[in-house]
Amino acid sequence: MAKKAINPTKSLKIPKIIIISAKICEFISTKLVTKFAAKIFTTPIKHKVPKRELEMDRKSLQELIPIPAIDKSVVTYSYGQSPRKVLLVHGWSGRGTQLFKIADELLENGYSTVSFDAPAHGKSKGKTTIMSEFIASILEIEKQFGPFEIAIGHSLGGMSVLNAIKDGLKVEKAVIIGSGDIVQDILDEFTIKLGLKKEISAHLKDSFETKYQVKMDDFSAFRAALKVKIPVLVMHDKDDPEVPVKAGIHINENLENGSLYLTEGLGHRKILGNHNVIKKILNFIKNP
C-alpha cells in the first residue's frame, strides 16, 4: 500500500457505518445508544505493525506478563541493555513499538527502554480497555522492570503517565506528547463525532463510572498534574486535529515544574518522529 502524506489538519474520522448505527440506536433508545457508544469508545483498532517499527520489534525481548489488578496480561518490549531505563507508553490504538524513533535515539544516548502493548492493543489479548487499565499496567511494569529514570507517554499514554505518577510511579522526569486533558471534553468530542446529542456524553460518563467503579473526572490530566512535582516536558502540536493544543497548554499551567514545547505542522502522530522534538526530549532528559 502506497504511503500517503500526513495532513496534520485532518482528523481521523469514524466510519460512516458506525455513525449510522449510532443514530439508529439513538432513535430506538437512550440506553441502547449509550451501550453502543461505550463499546465503540473502549474498542481500539489493532493496526498491523508498520515496516518502520519492525527493527525494534525484532530486537526487543518480548514477554507476556500478568497485570493482577485488572486480571489481564500485556506484552512488554525490553529494548537495549542499559540499567538506565525509560518507560514508553503509547496512545489509543497504538502499540509498544510506536515510539521507536525516540527509543532508538535513547539507545544511542546510553538508555534502554521498556514499552508495552496496552490491554486490547497490539499483541496483547482482549477487545476492550480503558485508561485505568493503562495506569494499572504501568504500575505493574514498574514493579517487574523498574526502576525507571524517565517516563514518556503519547496521547492517552501521556494522560496515563501523569495519573500513574500521581498514583505512585517513581520517575525523575516525564515527557508527555499530544496528551488529552479533561475527560468530559474527550467524551463530548467523541459524542459529537458519532453525530449524537450532547446528553449522550453524560450517560456515557455515568455508564463508565458504574461499570468500572471510578470517577471519570479523577483521570483528567490537569488534575493529576496538580499533584506531580517532578519536571515534566509537555509537547503538543498547534495543528493537532485529534487533541486540541489547549489540552497541552492547560496541563502545563497546572504543573508545578512543567515546561511547554509547541510545534507546528506535525499533527498528532508525526510529532513522534520529528528530529527537533526528539532532540528537545534528549536535552530535557540530560540537563539538570
From TrEMBL:
Name of the protein in question: Alpha/beta hydrolase
Keywords for this protein: Hydrolase
Domain AB hydrolase-1: 86-179
Alphabetized Gene3D superfamilies for the sequence: alpha/beta hydrolase
PANTHER family attached to this UniProt entry: AB HYDROLASE-1 DOMAIN-CONTAINING PROTEIN, HYDROLASE, ALPHA/BETA FOLD FAMILY PROTEIN
UniProt cross-references to InterPro entries, sorted A to Z: AB_hydrolase (IPR050471), AB_hydrolase_1 (IPR000073), AB_hydrolase_fold (IPR029058)
GO terms for MF: hydrolase activity
Gene source species: Flavobacterium ginsenosidimutans
